[in-house]
């Protein structure tokens, strides 16, 4: 499990787990440190994908199925032992959903809450009509990334460092661009679903996510663009909200 999951603070007595999926090209550190911030009832698992951090020498995954298989393979016994929630931003929203979809279909397991950020539903018109970018040259790719404001500013300020991140960014984008999931005929899940987004990001079809669950559906918008969740004030609001939702679900579970 240690290969796939970064956990800064193990909490064997935690009542529930929050499993977090990285954005395109991203690592696990941003989410793993949430384990130091959230209260002792929640244990945080941050997913670590191949081609970065301690897995830098491993080849990138080529498709969503590889991510789903690895994450479920590593976590299934743990997911059966106590309640869990999923959190994913951008690329991570797609991987969160794909994992939740597979867990329900194959193992009849579902999260107590799913938090999806900064992404349109995979079957929405907005998503389907998005041009493919992963095959662009590095220069054109960088120009596009700059134009949408979707790159952490600290990376854009250092082109040499950014070039090191480009392979992971492109690999993750390739996975998303080739991920297909039809709109479900009926809800797959019954848990609550919350969508987060930045007010200044490119518009996402958040409402389309409502189709995946029969549970409560909430949208919360924050000041900022694509990486609004890196703002410390926004992050505090998100973590307070996530904590409240998990504590509520813990009461329901008990």
From TrEMBL:
Catalytic activity of the protein: (9Z)-octadecenoyl-[ACP] + H2O = (9Z)-octadecenoate + holo-[ACP] + H(+)
Keywords carried by this UniProt record: Fatty acid biosynthesis, Fatty acid metabolism, Hydrolase, Lipid biosynthesis, Lipid metabolism
InterPro entries given in the database record: AB_hydrolase_fold, TEII, Thioesterase
Pfam families: Thioesterase
GO molecular function: fatty acyl-[ACP] hydrolase activity
Every Thioesterase domain range: 17-245
Enzyme nomenclature, EC number: 3.1.2.14
Swiss-Prot/TrEMBL GO biological process terms: medium-chain fatty acid biosynthetic process
Domain of life per record: Eukaryota
Family: Belongs to the thioesterase family.
Identification of the protein by name: S-acyl fatty acid synthase thioesterase, medium chain
Gene: olah
